[in-house]
Amino acid sequence: MKIFHGFTLIEMAMVLIIMGFLMGGLLMPLSMQMDYQKNKDTKKVLETIKDALVGYAIINGNLPCPALDETGVGQDNPCVPNKEGNIPWAVLGGLGRYDSWGNPIRYRLDDAYGAKNFPADLDTISELTIWDVDKKPLVNEAVNSNVIAVIYSCGKNGSPEEENNKDGYSGANCSSPFSGTTEVFTQDGYVEKKFDDILTWLPKTILINQLAITGKWP
Q: CB 3.0 to 4.6 Å from 188: which of 22, 99, 121, 133, for a disulfide?
């Protein structure tokens, strides 16, 4: 008669520990892959929004004002004093309401380009500046800045980083349609526990070029 020996409690515990290590090793890369894909998808959405803003300007003669509520409709022109809010997705064909984490996408406008028919002078000064986390400028900070609109996601943590929310109202999250009047925004790669916003901007040169091609400028 054969005698079958089962696992001892110690052996079972060892098996569970080994399985735990194996599962943990698999889950971490999977989580990182998902985060990478969400970042990639959000960047694509931001670029699509940028194209839609140019199209809106060609049709309407100005950039839309930010949305200040859930309707996704930008406030009436002029955009001052509320130059920042959420993307006015309803007037952009439904584009850009949320990022890959379900948070509203933010939008900051240079108010000179929210006015009907734009400023006629190409040397009109833009007040917006972009720098990296080390506060090194990514665009020329001299007079006649090239940035006329900023579009950004608050990233996985759902919170605008400090530099992207100076004197703002949204506090610890991006769900509030209101934010500050900051003129300096930060864009950089992911920095653990420091920065995970995803940001792009619309240069004046791109907008003017597209307006000229379509006969809307000067």
A: 133
